[in-house]
Known about the structure:
Strand order of the largest sheet: 4-3-2-1-5
Radius of gyration: 15 Å
Strand content: 15-25%
Mean pLDDT: 90
Shape: globular
Low-confidence stretches: none
Amino acid sequence: MTADPWEELAAELAALFPPLRNGDTLILSGEERYVQLRQMPSLLRAEAVANTFLSTERQLSPEAERRLAQLGWRPPDPPWVKNWSRDIAWPLRTRDADDLARLLVGTLRDVFEVPHPTQLEETAFNDFDDGEGPGGLASLRPGR
């Protein structure tokens, strides 16, 4: 029996979170829609793209926005937070890492309708790059 690729991605993400450093940022995108997270000194902020950043053709429907709220995302709060967001206290507990990974995967798969994890683009960087690159952000899928 083959493992579910979305479950594999969730496990990879959960394992990726604990070694994050201040300023580490990860973006997973499928077409225009994306989720991202940024490590800050006392919290990890996760975001899901809001309509402000989407073209007319890719706008989230009211039903998709209701689904984001049901999943636990906070709606945008301009001017400070322009995307859907969720803050998690740092350092993460194992359960929080697992829950966050499932939230990101569920958003990409069920709300943003990305058909398969191989269709995701991954961007990782550190805002305070010291030349060593993003601390805990090794590529999720080498060779991708």
